[in-house]
Amino acid sequence: MKEQEKQRLIDEMFTMGNDAIKRPSHYMLEDGTEVKNHIRSILGDDGFKSWAIGNAIKYVSRYKDKGKPIQDLKKAQENIQMVIDVLGEQDDLD
User: How far apart are CA 12 and CA 78, in angstroms?
Assistant: First the structure.
């Protein structure tokens, strides 16, 4: 991930506040890093995309069961958006 992209993510994190869909506080590390960004740095782009698709499947599969169906579908949508964002970044590099 480019330094510019890292800074954009940090800036967004501090301007969006606590968002249960995009930036739940329980997925923030002590240094302000989001767990999803940490996962991406460990897995790389291809592993990250697979992880996000797996999460989307999980949220769609159980959206009726936890009492917040719209929230779970939005979480699935957010995970799909993460894949789209990575693909867009890769297209920009070509």
Answer: 15
